Amino acid sequence: MPRALAAVLITTLVVGVPTSTFAQRRRCRANRPAPQRYCPPTEHRPVQPESDRDQPAPAPSIDDSQQAPQQPDAPSNDFQQVNPPQQAQPTFNSSQPTTAASSAQSLAPNSIGDFFGTGQSQFTILGSPFTGPNAAASGGNVGRQKLGENVSPIPRDRVFVNYSFFNNVPITATGTNVNRFTPGFEKTFQDGNMSIEFRAPFASTADSTFFANGNVQQDQFEWGDLTMFLKALLYNNDEIALSGGVGFSFPTHDPFVVLDSGGLALIKVDNNAIHAMPFLAALWTPNDQLFVQTYAQFDTDLNGNTVYVDNGGGPFNAGRIQDQTYGFFSLIAGYWVYQNPCGRIQGIAPVVEVHFNRSLSNADAVSQGGTGVSGGDDTLSVTNATVGVNVFLHDNLQMQAGYGFPLAGADDQFDGEFRISLNWLFGKSGNLYSNR
């Protein structure tokens, strides 16, 4: 537990200090005009009304009593325009959104999310079964990462941290509570039309080493799987944005180890699996208040985890256990009930989310001499709902809070969950109201 608190403190300092420092800047950009071409007034020409700016300037009057000085060797003209109008070239603020998104799309907040991503499986020691965590699942006892959690279909420049509290997660025989933290960042490239995102989850959760009688230490610090997503904007107009890409999770969580009462390792499941997660995402913003997002994603184990068993003759390679393939679909709808681009609180938007999660293949299992492990239930189907609120602060700070709960399915992965996320937008994603 002290290691978990230390990790939380480090994450808070790394993310919170620059965020709070930048948030102290309070400037109103709501009335900044959009860049345009126009003829600015000069010293010798009065300002023309807006309606007359497109008309040609009148010819200057000529006084016969005065002679205009002529330049040497310059040809004379009966009508010579004095100080011809100049056109200012448009300038663009680097903090404005690129063509990758309109203002309404840029302001649409991220999804909140719902998923833990693993549950129970059956272990067997010399024919005697007992319940343990799903050793084939991505993320271990920290839980699986999927796209539709604190993310937007629009590529963004941001630094973020997510906190999730899961109540009564069935990764042990009696269930356990999990406090998960996910710091990370997303950086755009290709003029804001593509981005790369990294997440490094960790949690206070059940230990990945436990005993054959089911006893396991709670509130232990555990790393999850490092996850990255590559995202590209595929189509964009004033109302609809469509993006797609692929994510990968890399094996950074601890292996699962089952000990006997004397501390001898009977089963060890290495963490070798790399997961590929292709996805499509869409955002619909028919006006500046309403926003709707959808996500469709698959999760496929590319290589599985190696399982070793020891029935008294030393560790033996029993083969590889493959995680199931999953499909995820999410629908999110929200509405900005308050907007004030000049205030400290610039926007408030309640949101409702529905998430459907289902396994698409049968569970795997390996054994050797009556000792082995299975990879969960053959069919997992979970529908979760999340209700929450988004708050937009200081042009560049987005905060989210929500509560998730199971709606349908017999494979609930928690009784309830609380989520809070903090996003600090920078670069071309910051100062979003400056282009409104």
What is the structural class?
A: mainly beta
- Helix percent band: under 10%
Can you tell me the CATH superfamily?
Autotransporter beta-domain
Give a count of the beta strands, DSSP E runs of length 2 or more.
24
CATH architecture: Beta Barrel
- In spatial order, strands of the major sheet run 3-4-5-9-10-13-14-17-19-22-23-24
State the major sheet: 12 strands, antiparallel, barrel
Q: How many helices does DSSP assign? A: 2
- Rg result: 30 Å
- The name of the CATH topology is Lipocalin
Number of structurally distinct domains: 1
Based on Cα principal axes, name the global outline.
elongated
What would the average pLDDT be, to the nearest integer? 81
The portion of residues forming beta strands comes to 35-45%
Intertermini distance: 47 Å
Unreliable spans are: 1-47, 74-82, 84-98
Question: Which series of helices and strands comes N to C?
Answer: HHEEEEEEEEEEEEEEEEEEEEEEEE
| CATH class type | Mainly Beta
Describe this structure in a few short sentences.
It contains 2 helices and 24 strands. It has 436 residues and is mainly β.
Key phrases:
single chain; mainly beta; Lipocalin; twelve-stranded antiparallel beta barrel; five-stranded mixed beta sheet; 2 helices; elongated
Task: Outline the structure in words.
This protein starts with a helix and ends in an 11-residue tail after the last strand. It is elongated, with a radius of gyration of 30 Å. It is built from two helices and 24 strands. A hairpin with a 5-residue loop joins strand 18 and strand 19 (345-359). The longest helix is centred in the N-terminal third of the chain and has 22 residues, at 2-23. Strands 3-4-5-9-10-13-14-17-19-22-23-24 form a twelve-stranded antiparallel barrel. Strands 7-11-12-15-16 form a five-stranded mixed β-sheet, with no helix packed on it. A four-stranded antiparallel β-sheet has the order 2-1-21-20, with no helix packed on it. With 436 residues, it is mainly beta.
